Amino acid sequence: MNPEVSIVIPVYNEEESLPDLFRRLFPVVESLGRDCEVILVNDGSRDRSLVLLLEAARNKPYVRVVDFNGNFGQHMAIMAGFSKARGDKIITMDADLQNPPEEIPRILEQMDLGHDMVGTYRVMRKDPVFTRKLPSKLINWITNRITGLNIRDYGCMLRGYHRRVVDLINMCRETTTFLPALGKKFAQNPVEIPVSHEERHKGTSKYGLYRLIRLNFDLMTGFSMVPLQGVTITGLFVSAASLLFALFLIVRRLLVGSEAEGMFTLMAINFFLMGILLFGVGIAGEYVGRIYMEVRQRPRYLIKMTYPDDQEAGEKP
């Protein structure tokens, strides 16, 4: 008999956070009064995370562990969890406890009301203002304008998905994706609710500035052609303005004569046009690069072991 609720948690080098996660998560799961399973996906951790995950699976019959062959990223780890989940209601959350497990019942309440996707947005965020809060708000605003998805908080992974939405997500084969946006595309009756947010007490964040920029490029280029179209439109306007300026210079030369003045202005305009050209080439390169990744048709992730479904191979950790 399949469980009603599946909770999918990606784990990457969270050895310090896992004991506290289990201490808070398992009582919540057991107090729900529902048949549940917890799927912990080890995304190629290099610390003792896998040891702790397998220990939890041995102690709790509703815990299952999926062990990757390497590090494939948070979203691919959740995709693997989706492929193993058996529940009608699937909840995702991070392992660092910045998403409190105590919020899970509130998500299930919304799903019981008929919402097939429950998004969340963090209130009273404990992140640094200038390195996380403000950039996050700016990126959310830009992304919503580009994709038209109107998701309030793209960075919060504490979300609920109905089985129908997860099945549609599992049918998608792209190698780079952004699950909250994909779920919002497929949902028929989505809703967003506020959730509390906690400061990371142990361990370090796995999302540096470069990784966050890469993730948002995946989001914008994977769900919209607006960046490419924007560059094209900008190129048309700049070309028209350049033509008008060239005509102005020709007329001015006929009326006034040749002169050396305005050299730095022309250089500045030239550098500006070169910047637009390089930006346009970069945007086009992002799309071409993603096409290249898709046509290779490489596996999105490799599962080494699923416990307890598979027997542990080789030496035990």
List keywords for this structure.
317 residues, alpha/beta, Spore Coat Polysaccharide Biosynthesis Protein SpsA, Chain A, 2 domains, 8-stranded mixed sheet, 51% helix, transferase, Nucleotide-diphossugar_trans
How many beta strands in the DSSP annotation? 8
How would the global form be characterised? elongated
Strand content: 5-15%
Q: How many domain regions?
A: 2
For the report, how would you describe the main beta sheet?
8 strands, mixed
Give the number of helices: 10
SS-derived structural category:
alpha/beta
What does this structure look like?
This is Glycosyl transferase. It comes from Thermanaerovibrio velox DSM 12556. The chain crosses the membrane at residues 230-251, 263-288. The structure is a single chain. The protein is of the alpha/beta class and 317 residues long. The chain folds into two domains: 5-224 and 300-307, Spore Coat Polysaccharide Biosynthesis Protein SpsA, Chain A, CATH 3.90.550; 226-296. The protein is built from ten helices and eight strands. The protein has helices at residues 18-31, 49-59, 74-84, 104-112, 129-147, 163-171, 179-186, 209-223, 226-256, 263-296, and strands at residues 5-11, 36-42, 63-68, 89-92, 117-123, 159-162, 190-196, 303-307. An eight-stranded mixed beta sheet has the order 7-5-6-4-1-2-3-8, with helices on both faces. The chain is elongated and about 90 Å long. The two termini are 31 Å apart.
